[in-house]
Amino acid sequence: MRRYSSIVVLTGAGISAESGIQTFRGGGGLWEGHDIEEVATFDGYVRNPRKVLSFYNDRRRDLRRAGIEPNAAHLALAEFERNHPGEFLLVTQNVDDLHERAGSRELRHMHGELDKVRCQRCHQVYSSREDIEPSTQCPWCMAAGRVRPHIVWFGEMPFHMDEIHLRLARCDLFVSIGTSGNVYPAAGFVELAHQRGITTVELNLEPSEGAALFSEGHYGPATTIVPEFFARLRQT
Ligand code: OAD
What is d(CA 227, CA 120) in angstroms, rounded to the nearest whole number? Predict the structure, then answer.
């Protein structure tokens, strides 16, 4: 394997599956038991704030369950980043905090974070692990009932897109891990990289929607294939 000077890694729910966090699609996925329109759109929130807030309160509590820890795949990425002499950016679609708990530093949560909330009146974003209720008061502007999860819902613009596009435009390796490739703009990153002729690698349990666009694919559980791939990359 050749040495790469600028690497962008994209992760999805599959990297956290073996830590005990539910994925979204497929058998037993979150979207099997919940209607996306109802719990993951702004319209759904306006129609029934209690239902939407309760869905994300449950997700936040799931994350704090005993035994939910970063797994070997999260740890392998953090270790690789610590030792990589070039640029490294980890972009995650995940709203859990397992990458930061594993020690990743250059990390962007494009779909938001479960442990952050924001006030729709004063726009302050702040860390909070408390449940959000329809009556929750913003500690900054004191408005009640305007606090929402700092999560990107369907139809909303993901975070950090300018920086992500800049980094995709100059990277020489793009690696996609544990994502089904169903949700844009993340699902389109491989296409951007592919058009530039750079090396694109998919690490997933099974080939994703965009599998044909990757120059290389390794399939299996993330806790096996991610440490293996990044160990090989380090030896180059
Ligand atoms: P999905 O649930 O759509 O896909 C998870 C992917 O991980 C699938 O391709 C699985 O095959 C793979 N997978 C499952 N277990 C794995 C394991 N142990 N090792 C490796 N791969 C495994 O999740 P995402 O692609 O992340 O957005 O979903 C993208 C977005 O859709 C999410 O960020 C969320 C969701 O709706 C919003 O809520 C805005």
Answer: 41
